[in-house]
Amino acid sequence: MDEVLAAVAETIKNFAVIYLVDITEVPDFNTMYELYDPSTVMFFFRNKHIMIDLGTGNNNKINWALKDKQEFVDIVETVYRGARKGRGLVIAPKDYSTKYRY
């Protein structure tokens, strides 16, 4: 996931910023957002948490590693467009439920 984030940082710099936070250094939100996975991607827009419906049941975050850079860019664009319209929950461009993982 680190490689994907580093690779897309230049592509999405006009509408998104990537922050890396060590949850052991900043434990304030760990219980609120259930941060305990090795890698978690969350989206915020103007200090508001933007939830994303990925079809997994957990709309708060992405807690698995994405391998495809374009797939991540598409997710970020979808979140940005929905957040600009004032939506607190956006629908992902792809369904990530387990029934579609082969």
UniProtKB/TrEMBL annotation:
It holds the Pfam family DIM1. GO terms for cellular component: nucleus. One of its GO terms (biological process) is mRNA processing. It is found in: Nucleus. The keyword Nucleus applies. Keywords: mRNA processing, mRNA splicing, Nucleus. The keyword Ion transport does not apply. It comes from the Eukaryota. Transmembrane segments: none annotated. InterPro entries: Dim1, Thioredoxin-like_sf. PANTHER family: THIOREDOXIN-LIKE PROTEIN 4A, THIOREDOXIN-LIKE PROTEN 4A, 4B. Belongs to the DIM1 family. This is Thioredoxin-like protein YLS8. The lineage of its organism: Eukaryota, Viridiplantae, Streptophyta, Embryophyta, Tracheophyta.
